[in-house]
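Working notes for the structural subgroup meeting. M.R. asked for a predicted model of this chain before we commit to crystallization trials. I am recording the input and output together here so anyone reviewing the notebook later can reproduce the run.

Input as submitted:
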Amino acid sequence: MTQKDITFVADFLTEHFNEAPELYNRKGKYFNVERVGQYLKDEDDELVSPPNTEGNQWFNFLKDSTHLKESPLLFPYYPEKSLHFVKRQMEGVIDQCLQKPADVIGKSVHQAVCMSLYKVSQSEDSTPQLFKLPYLWNDKTSNLHYVLFTILENSISKIHILRRHTDTSRSVSNGILAVEFGNFLNNSINESSDSRCYSCLDAHFYDDDTVTVVLKESVQQEGKERVLAQLPLS
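Returned structure, recorded in token form:
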């Protein structure tokens, strides 16, 4: 060992293992443990060397504030306890806060309808993502929920629109329908159906009555056309 190493160890022992008569009557050893390690022990015992909070701006601020001193919004401070103790206390409070909403929401949610959209293979590992672009819209005027989505394997030129009433006891006509774009932008009926076929890149509700879609030419060539289209729900 070098002299520097010996000095370092000696300084450590002098600082942390000096006799502390005030701790003689306490359980266990009566010298100061290393000050970082005491915070990490998973025990409920009080710290041997609690931190000195004198002059701490935050504690002084709380002490001088009549409104914040007893505020239930502030998590209590335990200067004599380890971080494990504080962590358990905080987890208990968070679990208590989340339990009631979880119970209420869980009891209020139930399945209103079940629709089979597509079938997948037995091996889930090899199943590609078929459900794309799910976009939700709530029409508060008519109390209707809408979901826009595409099914890749079914047809890339279709978007599907699912409509349900917010009151699950009521039903609306045309609960789900598909809009196919295909070659609807062809200039004449003589054009090849394969030459100007469009697929949906994205779709969102513009307002309660209109859907905005971004279309892309499906042919494999450079300079593919992009079309921004507004579709009335009617």
